[in-house]
Amino acid sequence: MAPDGTTNLALKDIVNALKFLNKVTPAFGGSSSKITVAGQSSGATMIRALLAVPSASSLFKSAILQSDPMDYGFLSPTTQQTLQSNFNGLISCGATNHTCWNSLSLTDIVDAQNTLYNTASSLDASAGAFEPIRPVQDGTLVTSPLDSTAVFPSVSKSIMVTTVLNEAGLAIYGSFPDPLPSSAFDPACQATFGANRTAVVVDSPYYPPAPSIDGSDPDARIQLQSVGTDYLWKCSGWTLARNWVQNGGQVYVGEYQLGASYPGNSAVSYCTEPGVVCHQDDIEIV
Question: Which of 15, 51, 256, 270 has a CA positioned 20 to 30 A from the CA of residue 65?
Fold first, then answer.
């Protein structure tokens, strides 16, 4: 967060890096017309934002988006301003007080950003709880949401969109290390989707309780993992893919059904089970 409200600084860094690559790639025997950009998770969110920057379109040929939590759209300017005001209050610096900015320690800045991260969803629900600081659809640099809430732009690039088999496994089983009763499924969904959308989820045939081997109460984490994977990653990714193709581009869609356990994932025993591929388990394969 920049105290003066400047947005999309990381995205602008990427654009500048691509400009540099376009200049120097030929000197190393490469072709600046064949640059592919790629990112995983929040990195893939940055690549999606880059695809929504018309002024950067000539800087790369194609893109790879791995495990992008696409259901988190870009922030609106209104939401960004809400978060910005809170951040400036946390650092006790005005938007133009350069003397105050320069007096801040790294710890001051990081602590303020961490506090904002943890409270953002209470300030504006659209910020979300897990990736609240993200690209802003400012209308100048990022000109499209690249989703179904607005007219999708014409596109021409080839992109690859991938997910892993159990994207939500790390989050669900990391948050709930012990089995959840089947009765926990409905309220857990309501906390995320609200009553009306939860009714659709619960009444659908896609997320039935998983029968237990010993006849005990089914573990709701199995359902929540499936819903979470579809909600944040798979369905939103497929929607982008359909929109991309319908508006002139080419898409390759894939799912990692085998993975290599990423450092840190081993702390969640579910992610070490045979056949389970959690979020980030595609990184070391690639």
Answer: 270
